[in-house]
Amino acid sequence: MNITLLLYGLLNVLFVLFASPLFISLIKKVKAYAQKRKGPPLLQTYYNLAKLMKKETIYSENASWIMRITPLVNIAALLVASLFVPLIVIPQPTDLVGNVILFLYLLALAKFFMALSGLDAGSTFGGMGSSREMAISALIEPVIIVVFAALAFAFKTINIPDMFREALTSNVLVNPVLILISTSIFIVIIVESSRVPVDNPETHLELTMIHEAMILEQSGKNLAMMELSNAMKQLLLMGILINILFPWGLTTEFTATSILISVGAFLIKAVIVAVIIGLFESSCAKSRLFRLPGLFGLALFLSIVTLIIEVFA
Amino acid sequence: MTLSLITILSLYAIIGLAIILLVIFSKSHRVINLLSIVLPASYIALALYTLASDVLPNYLLGGNYFFMDHLGIYEVLISGVLFLLAALYAKSYIERSMEIGEMSRNNLKLFYVAFNLLLIVITYAFFSNNLALFWILAELTTAFSAVLVVILNAPKNIGATLKYVFITSTCMLFSFIGLILIFTLTQSSLGAGTLNWSTLMLVASTLSPGILFASFVFTFVGFAAKSGIVPFHAWLPSAHSKAPAPVSAILSGSITSVGIYGIIRMYAVVAQTSELPKISFFLIAFGLISMVVAALTMLNQVNLKKLIGYSTIENMGFLLVGLGLGTPVAVFWTLFYTLAHAFTKASLFFSAGILHHQFESVRMDHIKDAFKLQPFASWTLILGAIAIIGMPTSAIFLPKISILLQSASVSPFLLFGLLIIFLFATVAFGLFLIKMFSKRSEDGSQELKRFNAPVSMKLPIIILLVAVFVLGVFFPQQLNDLLKTIVGELGIR
Amino acid sequence: MPSLQFSFLIDRLSAFFILLVSVVSVAVAIYSVHYVEHGTHDGRKNLIVSFMNIFIASMVLVIASSTMFSFLFFWEIMALSSFLLVMTDFEKKETGKAGMFYFVMTQLSTVFLLFAFLFIYNATGTFDIQQIRASPLVTSVAFVFLFVGFGIKAGIIPFHKWLPYAHPASPSNISALMSGVMIKVAVYGLVRFVLLMPMELWWGILILVAGTVSAILGVIYALKEHDIKRLLAYHSIENIGIILIGFGLYVIFALSGLQAVATLALIGALFHTLNHAIFKSLLFMTSGSLVNATETRNIEDMGGLIKRMPYTALLFLVGAVSISALPPFNGFVSELMIFQAFFQSAFLGNPALEMLLIASLAVFALTSALAAACFVKAFGITFLALPRSEEAKKAKESPKLMLIGPAILASLCVALGVFSFQIFGILGFSFPIPNMLLIGSLLTGLFVFAWLGLRTTAMKKERIAETWGCGITSQNSKMEYTASGFSEPIVTILKSIFRTQKKSERTYFDNEKVIFKSGKAEIHLMKFFEERLYLPVANFVRKVSLIVNNLQRGDVDLHVAYAFATIVVFLLIIWWFA
Amino acid sequence: MIIAPFQSIAQILIVLILAAAAIIIVKRDISSLVKTYAAQSLLLSLMAALLFVETGSIPLLFLAIIIFVSKTIIIPTFMTHILKKLNIKRDVEFHFLSPMKSLFASVIIIVFVYVSFSRLLAELNFFNSSLFFLGATIGISIVFMGMIVIFTRKQTITNVVGYLTMENGVVLFSLFLTELPLLVEVLIAVDLIMITLLATILAFGIDSTIEEFHNRLNPFQNTRKLSTNETSHDDFLRVQSFLENPNKEDK
Lengths: 313, 493, 578, 251
Known about the structure:
The complex is a heterotetramer. By secondary structure, chain A is an all-alpha fold.
């Protein structure tokens, strides 16, 4: 594990850490515009986090140490996961990081503890939240796996950086595979970052909220950690979508110029994706929980079609 | 000095009659019981002596009526052991039966006289060289064992005994027809008619196969009835369930083996001719029928002793199958199976007898928290069941596997059928025991006081079970040789 | 001609399985020392212990035996001793039912195995397992029978029904052994024989499909269970399914010439066998402690135990994380290997096969996700929040040895996960699997780093207060989310599989059905296999045996008539042959 | 060489024996059943005697005597003795087959036996005369007819008669086929007597109290004076309770 790899890791992690909150508020902004509102400033999320760090932390009497470790587990898992998705620089091939399945299960680890913390305080909301969250994530799991299986089929590798490199050098993903797979990944992003129509991050209405309900008991720095890790997760998934579909500007060598270029390129692409997400969110309404399987079914169908095309072509 | 076989043979009779006289004229139960223990003991001693000293087979009275060969000695030994242990067990069992008024004291002597007479008759049946003589003695075993069954004070016993007497003797008449046919056949082909197995074995190949087959079929009827082969089996379960436990043990150990013995002899005779495949098929078919019917019937029995009785039928069927397979290996293991089965069954009936005296019935719905009241009998019952379903380390296991293996070479379907039948029997035992032992008495019926069985009732069970499980893991060389010689003498190729 | 001559042969496969058996047995033995004391089994303690030893020994000997005969011999002893162990609390009604199920199924498996063995012997003339050389027909028939026989013992659907009955009924250390080890012996048998016989593609497909079905249905049935031990039993079915998936992949890939992937799948399956043995025994033992502490198996009556039994909670959590296949624990690594094998199916070059694998892959993914959900429920409802019953309030931490036993396995869960890469390196396999040591250290490191960071930067003030509970006066256990509530969304979404029947009736004050007076609603989950497969067969057999019984009901005359008819038939036979 | 009168007499005897069997099938009055049986046995012994006169072999004579003593004297007298004790005089119920049907059945049986044995016995070369063949066939048929009696009649005592009839059939069969060693014949007779005694006593036991039954069954009654009365008394009570609720013991 040489120095460049270390450098890559540091760079990537820091980038994810600091860039991710931006897109949360960006999407908020887009939705606000869509609703003819002004919306919060672009740096609102950073302000929130800073404020939360300054606030005291309150634990319920019924809560146990699960409640205390969950934020740390989340942030740790997401930090490790952010090693796996190169956003600006692709490191030279290595087996150490980048295994797509490990990446997914790191997210699952975070989610597992989040759900436990939801049950920990014994309040009704938390239980409801984690129950729904687990149900949804269980149902989306086949989609995710099949999508990445499709990618693995396409790129003949299960290593995310290698996928990106492949995508960079040879664009194997010609239409219609492009559209299909992007649609599936897009749905995955919507689900995983708990957005409309699956979930509604704005309200605290018990009927709609899922993710928010889980972290309802969290407060202060712990809440900050949860929010941050959620933002990072969203960014990482967006990054996968971006770097596979249009990896232009993604660089492989460690030079200041190329890095700057790719940072810029990535930001632009990410902003575009975020805008799309925002528009999509504001274009459709929160659907009932038991309607969601239909959406997932669609995603699964698309990804399987992708696979079929790849298999028979 | 060595006794000549004629003396030995007459010794059997002399000892037997002497003991019976003593029984008639002795007063106390203990003495009578002791005498009845001495008789089988002496028989075993004589048999072992014969086995050790003289060269078998040996023909007596010019080979006309009696002879001794290894098969006979083997069967006599089995019966001797069974009778010995049964007598040992009977003491306290009968005493208890008389206390609770199951059996009136007047019949005590009748019981023991019939008991000893039965042993004598069985012994001579196994030593009889002449088919007709064997037939008569077999009939007599029916008569005496019928007395043993009917001895208890219950109308049901009379009914059971009537079933027994009528079915067996009716069918035995047909085997008499069969043996007249054989006699005539030999007369017509040899000039002088004979019913001697020793002779028949020699001349069988010269006789006309058609009539030989016919006579086999006719004789089969009677012997099958004695060994409880379906559809002549009806007497067996009822008699077994009604009779006192020691008698049930003898019935399913010795009486049935008398029938099997006859079938084996006839088979050995016919096996010399071209009819072999036909009768093999015949035997396997009847074995299967018996097994199927018995196993299916076992599946919902409520009466423990009936269950055990039906399992006897099932095992007899399996013996027929093993005989029908007819290879030396199969016959070897069939012979061993008779011994293993007799011992296991005896232990089961003895345990059931203890339970019977505890609960005054062996019906499932009358037996409650058996483990608390009769831990010993419960465990021996479980062990016996484990042994009879042919679990490993029981003596049944090896013969079962080997015979199944032989059947596989006939047809895989036969093998699978047998396995399924065994599954049914096993399941029947398992479910019955689970149901029976999981029964608990509701708080009302706690006043059932414990019947503590004396050593004389426990010892036979222990001996039998030890024997069964030791034979399961250790196969003595002498036994191996004995069985091999028997197979040789039967001329199984 | 069989005789009691046993011969044993220990190669790497059997050595591996013996290791598995012994490791788990040690932990269970330590655990049992105190566990057996707690149970109210009067004189049975000694019996339990002695039978337990026979049981373990027989399992080791089954694995070690090199002839089918001794395999069968010890297999029977294993079945018998385990049956007796299941019947420990024979007075209980449910134990009786469990015993019946278990007895029948285990005998059935013996029937199939015995048939296969004798069939092979008849073809090859030897009992030696290594010498199975026979025509494809023979081996195929033998394979089918072996598969069914071992499948019953391993509890693959639809032969699984005995598991969810036998495990709750038997003492927890026994369930730990049975679910952790015994069903693995069945897996061993299957692997052993299939590896020795000339494989065919459809074997692999059969194994894969059976595995997939067992996995998904197992976890789905587990989701609706609130009896913790039954829940774990269903998870055993699921994990056996996963193991079979891996093994099926091995067969398929090996026959397609992709040796590397095949090895990956096989090792993955075996590794998962070991892992499942470890964490399932761990979970069963801890649940046994729970049952002892709370006197109930229903998780709806537990809750809040993390405060009362902290160590048990930690151990259970480790087990839950491992079985939910979360990094960096062992369960994850083995599932990762199987996943990777799946991802290689692009190279098969047989479209139909690839599609099958993809479908199976999707189901597999769903399975592992549902498993995670199920264990969030199991842990959350059992340990977190407020106690749901008086017993749970009064629960005490279990004695030391009942913690040490599981603790060994828990540490193994972590170690096998974290050092998996190195272990495989030592064993001489080089798989493209991530170095979990790195990941694990990164996770812990970043965990500590974040913790320190928060300590330094963030506000330290912490307060323990009552959090907002939707305006209720005081938080009580009635307000908590129940286990059934937790699994309700999934149950509703998958109602077609559960065959859920919701019944609800309402009464109103007025005729327009406006003013609601009273009503009741109930959800009934159908026991599909029991009601559609097991009971019909049993009833059929019972009916037949009743018929046979009634044919024999009657006095002398009837039976003499039977004899008469039979003899007339004999006359026919004679006439025919003469 | 067999001459005509013997032939005709033998045929007449055979037919009479068959007729006796038929009567046993249809008759309802038990005492007359026993009488018919005695008559049949008498005919049988006459048959044996006739054969002795014909062939001049001593065993046949003895056989005739044995048959006469055992079956026309001992068994019938004993049975009538029992019948006096029994309170049943007639056996009116029939199972499975009505008397007429059973007669038809036995006719069919006769034909069938004839057919099936014709092939069989043809191989026995010394069957030179049709008479022997007829005798053998009728013998077997009588065995079957006796069996029909056993399973169509309800009363045990009648079943005993049926059994005896079967045995007569066997003897007839053996008469015409061959002659067994004398010892065997004696033993068979003894055996038959024992079985019959037993069966009859059992039949008696079925419809009498256990007490009387055991008194009859047990030959050692007076060797030892026991307090018979109270044991037998509570035996009696037990039996009463049985008769009140018979399904207490299993069925």
